[in-house]
Design a protein that fits this description.
Blueprint: E1 2-5, H1 10-20, E2 27-31, E3 37-41, E4 49-53, H2 60-76, E5 81-86, H3 105-116, E6 120-124, E7 139-142, H4 145-158, E8 166-170, H5 176-187, E9 194-201, E10 209-215, E11 222-230, H6 236-245, E12 250-258, H7 264-270, E13 275-279, E14 293-296, H8 299-307
Parallel strand pairs: 1-4, 4-5, 5-6, 6-7, 8-9, 8-11, 11-12, 12-13, 13-14
Antiparallel strand pairs: 2-3, 9-10
Helix pairs in contact: 1-8, 2-3, 4-5
């Protein structure tokens, strides 16, 4: 097997390669002045299984095109099969028509990946698990929530904070199953209660959401808000305020993907959030790192998955 990486998250790819005891395969990515990109594979790949690790994160279109061009280059060099590992799957939130005339972007992306010749796709915590049914090629959605649940459990145990004093909170109705998955590992049992925030999103204004109510008891407890991604903070920051208004002692956040836009890091740092636990499915830029952030690597999970395809 040969492991290639695009430019989206080279550090994560290097971690995976190290854990697997291989070197990253050589490739050249050239970006021209007119924003076009060219990918050249610099390895002999005939009859090889090739893996391309590339998050389609911001800039989404650029990284998505790199991923597609890698697959084309490998197929032209007669790779036996090409597997895509997309730790963060861009466009996954655009999975239904909210308004008349809208595209369904994830449909287009999936059709592109299939038509260009990928044999299988892996991703982490895709926004809607039902999207996996759109694929006509093998697809595996891995969850990093058990990893984060283990990390957070260790964090609170080290602080001698009893788990029964912690309330798990879903920031909207769509994240309820994610919270259940997280809580089963965090508490070590399926018998636990969770709180749910009712949220309304303005489909005419990007990054605008408003919490309407909170169902469940956070009074006197440590609230932990769990979600698959944060972009602007427009969901989690109001949720933090609502939990505190309802009597929470403090509020933490657990998020798989930090798909930050300009200003997100500052808003989260300046908020009343105690700590922000996340993973490295998306590479952070220097100005996106903030003191409250704690990142856990998914490299070992990817390496274990890939060992099964060698």
């Amino acid at each position: 097997m040969k492991l290639f990486t695009g430019s989206a998250n080279r550090k994560l790819a290097e971690e995976v390669a190290h854990l697997m005891g291989v070197n990253l395969a050589a490739a050249e990515i050239i970006r021209f002045g007119n924003s076009e990109v060219k990918v050249t594979v610099q390895e002999t790949v005939q009859n090889e299984t090739c893996v391309v690790l590339q998050s389609t994160s911001n800039p989404t279109d650029t990284h998505l095109m790199e991923l597609a061009l890698f697959c084309d280059a490998l197929r032209r060099e007669e790779a036996k099969k090409v597997i895509g590992v997309i730790p963060y799957f861009g466009y996954a939130k655009q999975n239904i028509q909210h308004r008349l005339g809208e595209c369904v972007s994830i449909n287009v992306v999936i059709r592109l990946l299939e038509s260009i010749g990928f044999a299988k796709i892996y991703t982490f915590d895709i926004h809607d698990e039902g999207s996996g049914g759109i694929f006509s090629i093998p697809f595996k959605n891995i969850s990093a929530l058990p990893l984060l649940a283990t990390q957070l459990n260790k964090y609170f145990v080290a602080k001698k904070i009893p788990l029964e004093s912690i309330a798990l909170v879903s920031p909207d109705q769509g994240a309820v199953e994610k919270v259940r998955r997280f809580g089963t590992v965090f508490y070590g049992t399926e018998n636990f209660s969770e709180c749910v925030i009712e949220k309304k999103r303005d489909q005419n204004i990007p990054h605008r959401a408003k919490p309407l109510d909170l169902y469940g008891n956070v009074n006197g407890k440590i609230a932990v808000i769990i979600d698959d991604m944060v972009v602007s903070g427009s969901t989690v920051i109001p949720a933090v305020s609502l939990c505190l208004e309802r009597g929470a002692r403090s509020v933490y956040s657990v998020v798989v993907h930090h798909d930050f836009i300009d200003g997100s890091s500052k808003r989260l740092q300046d908020s009343k959030l105690e700590r922000f636990f996340t993973t490295n499915t998306i590479a952070l830029t220097a100005n996106q790192i903030f003191p409250k952030l704690e990142e856990t690597s998914v490299a070992a999970i990817i390496a274990n998955e890939l060992k099964s395809v060698v």
